[in-house]
Amino acid sequence: MVDIRQTLAVIKRDSDVNASMNSLPSTRWTASSGFTLIELMVTIAVLAIIVSIAAPSISTQLANQRVKSTAATLENALKEAKAESVIRRQPLALSYNNNGTNAGTIGVSGITSYSYSAKSTVKSNPAIVVFAPSKNANNAVVYTICDSNTSASPRQVSVSKLANIINKLGGSCP
């Protein structure tokens, strides 16, 4: 037979456990189920403030990158025209066309053409440079590359009469 003392001891022990659970704060014995609405709203508000501060800076960096890319494309086209004129033993001309709302193009005497962003513009006077097989250019030309975002820094690609090609920061855009 089961001893009554043992049975009473088990009942007392179970009631002590339940009593101690009831004395704990409710947050201790219930599991957390996620974030509150207020926590989520504060997080979203902080993120919105950070994005609003960073957005103008990112826009300017993208515009500067477009200008650098167009300048590098122009520099590569000039170097290719210079090399091809020596290889082919004939004068080769390089010209550009900003094309308005479409991507601009840089052409090398029907041999090849390059394209650049429609937001970038190339300006020079004269618009065409001719490379001779003697590794000279017919004119010294300075190309200025600008972006539609006026906060972007313009770049210049210059070609000397000796056909030296230099890509540098500078120039002015309207």
Commentary on this structure:
The protein has a domain of 119 residues: minor pseudopilin epsh domain (minor pseudopilin epsh fold). Helices cover 44% and strands 23% of the residues. The protein has 174 residues and is α+β, with helices and mostly antiparallel strands.
Task: Please render the helix and strand layout as text.
Blueprint: H1 4-23, H2 26-29, H3 37-88, E1 92-97, E2 104-108, E3 112-116, E4 120-123, E5 129-131, E6 141-147, E7 155-159, E8 165-169
Antiparallel strand pairs: 1-2, 1-5, 2-3, 4-6, 6-7, 7-8
Structure classification: alpha+beta
Give the amount of beta strand, in percent: 15-25%
Major β-sheet profile: 4 strands, antiparallel
- Radius of gyration from the alpha-carbon trace, in angstroms: 36 Å
Basic shape: elongated
Strand line-up of the largest beta sheet = 3-2-1-5
Number of helices: 3
| First-residue to last-residue Cα separation | 105 Å
Spell out the CATH superfamily of the domain at 51-169.
minor pseudopilin epsh domain
| Contiguous runs where pLDDT drops below 50 for at least 5 residues | none
Features:
alpha+beta; minor pseudopilin epsh fold
Give me a quick take on this structure:
The protein is α+β, with helices and mostly antiparallel strands. The chain is built from three helices and eight strands. It has helices spanning 4-23, 26-29, 37-88; strands at 92-97, 104-108, 112-116, 120-123, 129-131, 141-147, 155-159, 165-169.
